[in-house]
Every structure is written in C-alpha cells, then in structure tokens.
Amino acid sequence: MKVLMFGWEFPPKIYGGLAVASYGITKGLSLQGDVETTFCLPKPTGEEEGFLNIINMSQVPIAWRDVQYDNIKGRMVGHTAEDYFRFRDHIYADFNYMQGLDDMGCMGFAGGYPSNLHDEINNFSIIAGVLARSEQFDIIHAHDWLTYPAGVHAKMVSGKPLCIHVHATDFDRSRGKVNPTVYSIEKNGMDHADCIMCVSELTRQTVINQYHQDPKKCVAMHNAVYPLSEEYTNIPSTRRPEEKVVTYLGRITMQKGPEYFIEAAKRVLDRTHNIRFCFAGSGDMMNAMIDLAASYGIADRCHFPGFQRGKQVYECYKRSDVFVMPSVSEPFGIAPLEAMQCGCPCIISKQSGCGEILDNVIKVDYWDIDAMADAMYSLCTNEQMWKQLSDEGIKEVDRITWEKVGLRIRECYNQLMGRGWFNNDEYLNAVKNIK
Fold first, then answer.
1. Is there a single domain that holds both residue 115 and residue 149?
2. What is the pLDDT of residues 291-304, one digit of tens each?
3. Is residue 194 located within the same domain as residue 48?
4. For the ranges 135-139, 229-233, 337-341, which has the lowest average pLDDT?
5. Strands annotated E in 205-352
6. Which of 395, 342, 17 is nearest to 203 (CA)?
7. Element (H, E) at 205
8. Are 153 and 262 contained in the same domain?
9. How far is it, in rounded angstroms, from Cα 195 to Cα 44?
10. Is the pTM of this model over 0.85?
11. DSSP E strand boundaries for 129-274
C-alpha cells in the first residue's frame, strides 16, 4: 500500500505536537512492512529519518505538459532552464505565481510559520497537484489545516480517497473566536474528505457539531508515544525531597490556560513555601505570566526557562515532581504521556483529549483553581499517592504505542480502498481487539 502524505512539521525540526504525531504515525505505519509512505514537507532539514520517503516541496518544479522531472532531486529530465521559460505558458493551471519561481521552476518555502503563511499554504496545494500527477499512490493523508488544501487538490487530480487528520481546530486555538479564513479552509477539507481522523472524541464532537460533518466518516484516532531512547532513559532524576518542583511545559498561549497554573501556584504557596514552579515554554502570554507571578509576590518561586527542545524536555520531566497541563481546550496533548514515561505524575484538565485514554492521572476542570491547587499540594506532600501514580502511570503509558495507532489507521485505509467510503461503527468493531 502506498500513501501520499502531506504534513507541515517533522522531526528533527519540532515546533509542537504536530511534528511528534507525524513521526509517530509514519513510524507506526512503517512497522507493518507493506506500507510505503511518501511524506511531503514545505522545507525539510535533510536530517529526517530514512524509514519513509521525504519530498522537499521547495525542490519540486511546477509541471507543464510534455516536460518530465525528477521530483526527488528536483530537476527536469532532459530539459534546461531555458526550456522551462519557453514552456511555462503550458502550466496545468493559471497560477499567477510565476514571479515566485526560481530558475528550475520551483516555489521556495520559508518553512515553519512565516508571516505569509496563507500564501505558502496555497503554493503547497499547487505543488500537491503536480505530485498527484507523477506519484503512484493508493491513499492521500493530510495532516492539520495547513495541508488540507493540498489533500483536496491531490484528490481532485487523482481521484484517490482522502483522509484528513485533525490535530486541532480553530475552536481550540482561539477559545471559540474562530478566524473565518482558517475555518473555511478547515471545513472545505472536511467536506471533501472521505475519512476524518480526529485525535480524540472531544475533537470528533467539535468536527461533527461545529463543522457539520457526518458522524459516520469521523473517527477518534488517539495519539501515542514512542519508547524512550537509551539517551533519554539514562537521564538521571534530580528530584529532591526537601524541595518539590511542579512543571508546566508547553506553549504559553490562551489555549493552554497558563493563567490558571499561576493562580493555582499562588494558592499552593499560601500553604507551603518549599515548592518551585517551572514555566517551561514560550508564547505570546509569557510576559503577562511573568508579570502575574510578580503581582502575586511569588516571582522568587517561579522559573521561566523558555522553550525546551529534545533532551531538554525529558531533563525537565526527570527534575519535576508533578506535571500540570491546565489546557482550556486540548485536542489531545502528548506532553502528559511523555511526563508519565519519566515517572512524573500528572494533573490534566478534563478538557484534554488524552484524558479519554488515561486513568492514572488527576483530572480537574481547568477553571477549578482550588481543585488544581489541592492536587498539586497533595502530590507534593503525600509520598504514597505520588508513588502510586508514578508507578502505575509508567505501566499505563507503556501500553499506548504508535504501532497500535498504525494498525488502526490501516483499518481506515482498508475500508476506503475496499469500497471508497468509511463507516465509524464498522471501524470500531474491526479494531476492538487492538488494545
């Protein structure tokens, strides 16, 4: 089975959970042995792992009639740059982007999330149509709203089934104040999709109710974690009994509820002073949170180390006694699973998708500051409670693997290839033994 997959992030370049999930899903599919994934990125680093085919969309010339190209090397076959300018009027569509092309007829991408993001999304979708004419594939799989237009274009060109993967919606990112342009891109992708994979039942219900999608074609496809490498497993724990550390790790934006973490920290520090609060991350609310901590007189107990990468993330977990994710709306949230791998008990909001598959965590409403503070205080002062959640959390998260996610996604593919449409009820029956 050959999968043409569109994504915006992939390790080693990580901006957030999207890159981690893209890696895990493709790795899980590769373990089946008979799935070949071609993953298209705006601007890969060249350091991506070699278990899948990576296409650099910055090196794919726009195709025109009677001219062939090598889409991996990004070079025309048997033609020169002069040939390109001679034939460019024969491009398949009237793109009006000719001034943005280099001498080989390629569109450059900045990568990441530049100020002209919507232009890059549009250009990405144009090149997707080019690839859909040249690649051999059975299924199209598009991750997150940035690549939905690419998936739709590839489907229109090839006629192949389209899966879109909803890692978040604009309702999550904006607390309900959706951007109409982003919403329209999301809804158009969902309308054209044959199967909509949602990272949680929470997200699935948002897709059904806010984007008016048929429940039968929407499926909850929970994320997972991959086993810790030896490098991360061997990170020593530096937890100290005389002073506890409670950690928030993630983007410091309104979706993640950082102000509730500060509010709860204040209540905990009203009861004891031997706890430090680590605010690991960056975002548009960071300065406001620093000011809020200062206004409460707890700045000496709060630390803001900034964005953490790679090994730094796991060092942070290994040094923490408690991990807190107070998200207002979290489609899934991989961070608690990573913290649990390191033996760090977690407190998560009930508005988090990962709570649907986790039992050995404490769940509170994000707005219930007193409950959040009580949970923090209890885990920092009750050694038996801490050890129970630490030990059982490790066992639980070890069973949540990307290999199982890959098997579940394969069932979605099988339904679409077998008859061209997807039914969630039949899917749930087919995967009930994958535990």
1. yes
2. 999 999 999 999 99
3. yes
4. 229-233
5. 218-220, 244-249, 275-280, 302-303, 322-325, 346-349
6. 17
7. helix 201-210
8. no
9. 27
10. yes
11. 139-143, 162-166, 195-198, 218-220, 244-249
